[in-house]
Amino acid sequence: MDSAGVLRIVTDNARVGLAVVNLQRRYVYANGTYAEIRDLPSADIVGQRLQDVLGGAYEEQAAPRLDRAFGGQRVAYELRRPTATGDRFYEVRYEPIEVDGAAALVVVITGMTERRATASPIRDAAGRADAERRFQEARLTTERELTLDGILVVDDQSRVVSFNRRFGQMWGISDEILSARADTLLLDSVRQKLVNPDQFMEQVRQLYDRRDVESHDEVALIDGRTFDRYSAPMRDADGRYYGRVWYFRDVTEAKQAEAALRQERDRAQRYLDTADVILLALNADGLVTLINRKGCDLLGWSEAELIGQNWVDRCLPARIRPALTQKLKDLLGGDLSVIENPILTRDGRELLIEWRSRVLRDDTGRVTGTFSSGTDITEQHAAVEALRVAEERMRFALQSADVGIWDMDYATGVLQWSETLEAQYGLKPGTFGGTFDAFMAFVHPNDRHSLLETLGTAMKAGSDFSLQNRAVWPDGTVRWLSGAGRILLGEDGKPVRGVGISLDITSRHLLENQYHQAQKMEAMGRLAGGVAHDFNNLLTVILGYCELLLADRDPDAAARADIMQIQKAGGHAASLTRQLLAFSRKQLIEPTLLDLSTVVGDMRAMLVRLIGEDVKVTVNTPEAVALVKADRGQVEQVVMNLAVNARDAMPHGGTLTIGTANVTLDDQYAATHLDVKPGPYVALTVTDTGTGMTPEVQARLFEPFFTTKGPGKGTGLGLATVHGIVAQSGGSVGIDTQTGRGTSFTVYFPSADPRDVVPAARQLPRPRGGSETVLVVEDADGLRELTQRLLQRQGYTVLTAANADEALRLSEQHPSIDLILTDVVMPGASGPALIKQITGRRPGLKVIYMSGYTEDSITHHGVLKPGIAFLHKPFTSQTLGDKIREVLDR
Question: 448-466 in b/e burial notation, b at 16+ Cβ within 10 A?
Answer without folding.
Answer: eeebeebbeebbeebeebe
